[in-house]
Every structure is written in structure tokens, then in C-alpha cells.
Design a protein that fits this description.
four-stranded antiparallel beta sheet; ATP binding; ABC transporter transmembrane region fold; single chain; alpha+beta; 4 strands; transmembrane helix
């Protein structure tokens, strides 16, 4: 083997090592790049999610539409006259459409809920429905819900198509005005300017319709936000905790006093307990009897303040209306009439807050 062959062999090994190193570096850097990109994508998605509402409100589609109009106006200045008229017509049509579409969207959302609730309840009670032979009855009821929702959904689609047709008409008028403007000013314009104006005017049709329909769809989707806001404004219970704290060993006797207590389950509902006066002494076993709806369970509801009663209820001399709901309900227990199988151990159910030890 000559020295030239040895040198050639060493050069080949050298280049193989370089090739192997570059391959390993490519794999490592590619893996590292994917990890960095995945982390960046996750952080970007979180950031975009928090800024979604403001981003939708500030969508740049209108800026793109203005850019198309600006290009056409720079070539044909007279185009601003029909554009101003078309813009006013567009504002009028959009407002007219939104007054109808918002209400139609509310109707569609209202009629959609019974379809899903009926389907869910039917699936959960499928064996009972078959056992009593009520399949056709439930199918008829489902068809009625579905027909009502389909009618509302079809009405929503027709209103959207009505709006789309008029947007297409406005865009067609704009393209026609641009074309006639090019014909009138053909002696003052070159071929490049005419082509630029016409191409931008034609591209406006799809862009303009998409942008306007998205803005209108945003208004329609805000009906869901309205329903969510209504839930945030529901009447809430009394404060969970107040400055008034009961003694640590309260209640230690079991003296319960009702003083002119009136109770109703809602502010507009009927009064089920009317100026009740009673006293339950410690270690007494009291049985309350009465027909259905006489107000037996309402006594427990008044004790737990499921709805705020009128009058005064004392437990071991402490006025319950001055306590926070957490302090009040934490100190009392109830065994419901309905049999319930609780999860967890017996000890966990007897002492859910771990306030006692296992020592007697």
C-alpha cells in the first residue's frame, strides 16, 4: 500500500466522521427544535386564548377591505363617490340584518336544547321506555323537538343567505363602477393601472363578504355571551362567612327556637311557613306529621337557610341569620328520606372535616 492510498483512506475516514457528526447534530438539533417549537406553540396558544375576545373585536379584515378601496381610489379618484354611497347602504343593510338574525339565533339556540336533553334522557331511560312500550311516544316527541329546531335553523340559514346575496350585489356594483371608471378614463390610464384596479376590485368580492359576515356572525354569537352574563347575575345566597363567629363548641345543647318564622323557596313564591313559633328543647325527640306539602321539609330548609327565612331562628341562643352559611351548615347534619349510598369509608361520612380522633 502506497502513501497515496493511506492518505486517501485517512481522508475517507475523516469525511465519514464529519458526515456522522453532522447527521447526529442534525438529529439532536431537530429534536431540540421540535421541543422548543412545541413549548412556544403551547405558550402562544395560551396567550392567544386569553386575548381571543379582544382579537376578534379588532379583526384586521376591515383594514384589508380599506386597502382594496384605497388602491382603486388611487387609480380612479372618482370611485370614492359610489364607494361612499355603497358604504352607507352596507351600514343600513347590516343593521337591518342584525336586528333579525340576533333574535333568530336566540330562537335556534332555545329550540336546540330540548333536542339534546330529550335525546340524553331517552338514552338513560332506554330500558324503561322499552319496558312500558313508550318507544313510539318518545319518537314522536323527539320528532316534534327536531322539527321545531329544524325550522328555526332553516330560518337562520335563509337570513344568512339573504344577507350574502345583498353583499354580493354591493360588491358587483363596486366592480361595475370600477370598470366603467376605467372606460371613462381610458385615455388617462395605462394598461397596468387598469389591470391593478380591476384585479383588486374583483378580489374584494370574497374578502368583503367574508369580513362582513364574520362581523355579523360575531354579533350573533354574542347571544351566547348574553346568556352567560345572565347566569353571572343570578341571585346568590348569603355570605359564606361573616364577622360573626359561633363559639367553638357550638351547638352543645340542642335548643332550637322558631320566633315568628315565615319561609318561602323564592321571593315570588308562596309562603309555606307562616309566622311559625316553636321551641325544641335539648334531648327531645320531636315527630312532625302532615300531608304532602304541609311544610315538614321546609323546617329543615329554613334551618339550613336554603332560602332566607323571615323571622328569627335561634340555636342554643345564637341567631342563625347572623352566621355565615359555612359556619351554620358545617355544624348541622341531616339524614335525607331518600336512600343514598355514600362513597368513602364510614368514618369519612361521620366526620367529613376530620375534626375528631379515633380515640373514645
Amino acid at each position: 500500500m502506497t502513501s497515496a492510498n493511506v492518505t486517501q483512506e485517512l481522508d475517507r475516514d475523516f469525511y465519514l466522521w464529519i458526515f456522522g457528526g453532522l447527521t447526529a447534530a442534525t438529529i439532536f438539533l431537530g429534536f431540540f427544535r421540535n421541543i422548543i417549537m412545541f413549548y412556544m406553540f403551547v405558550k402562544s396558544a395560551q396567550t392567544l386564548h386569553t386575548r381571543m375576545f379582544s382579537s376578534i373585536l379588532r379583526t384586521p379584515c376591515f383594514l384589508l377591505i380599506l386597502g382594496v378601496v384605497a388602491v382603486a381610489a388611487s387609480v380612479i379618484p372618482l370611485i370614492l363617490v359610489p364607494v361612499s354611497v355603497l358604504f352607507l347602504v352596507f351600514i343600513f343593510i347590516r343593521r337591518y340584518f342584525l336586528r333579525t338574525s340576533r333574535n333568530v339565533k336566540r330562537i335556534e339556540a332555545t329550540t336546540r336544547s330540548p333536542v339534546f336533553s330529550h335525546l340524553s334522557s331517552s338514552l338513560h331511560g332506554l330500558w324503561t321506555i322499552r319496558a312500558f312500550g313508550a318507544t313510539e311516544k318518545f319518537q314522536t316527541l323527539f320528532d316534534a323537538h327536531q322539527d321545531l329546531h329544524s325550522a328555526a335553523f332553516f330560518l337562520l340559514l335563509t337570513t344568512s343567505r339573504w344577507f350574502a346575496v345583498r353583499l354580493d350585489a354591493l360588491c358587483a356594483i363596486f366592480v361595475m363602477a370600477t370598470t366603467f371608471g376605467c372606460l371613462l378614463l381610458r385615455d388617462q390610464m395605462d394598461a397596468g393601472s387598469v389591470g391593478l384596479a380591476l384585479s383588486y376590485a374583483v378580489s374584494l368580492i370574497g374578502m368583503f363578504q367574508w369580513g362582513v359576515r364574520q362581523s355579523a356572525e360575531l354579533e350573533n354569537m354574542m347571544t351566547s355571551v348574553e346568556r352567560l352574563v345572565e347566569y353571572t347575575k343570578l341571585e346568590s345566597e348569603a355570605p359564606w362567612e361573616t364577622n360573626k363567629k359561633p363559639p367553638p363548641d357550638w351547638p352543645n345543647k340542642g335548643l332550637v327556637t322558631f320566633d315568628e318564622v315565615s319561609f318561602s323557596y323564592s321571593s315570588e313564591g308562596p309562603v309555606v311557613l307562616h309566622k311559625l313559633k316553636a321551641m325544641f328543647r335539648p334531648r327531645e325527640k320531636v315527630g312532625i306529621v302532615g300531608r304532602t306539602g304541609a311544610g315538614k321539609s321546609s323546617l329543615v330548609s329554613a334551618l339550613f337557610r336554603l332560602s332566607e327565612p323571615k323571622g328569627k331562628i335561634y340555636i342554643d341562643g345564637v341567631l342563625t341569620s347572623e352566621l355565615g352559611l359555612h359556619d351554620l351548615r358545617q355544624k348541622m347534619s341531616i339524614i335525607p328520606q331518600d336512600p343514598v349510598l355514600f362513597t368513602g369509608t364510614m368514618r369519612k361520612n361521620l366526620d367529613p372535616f376530620n375534626q375528631h380522633t379515633d380515640e373514645p
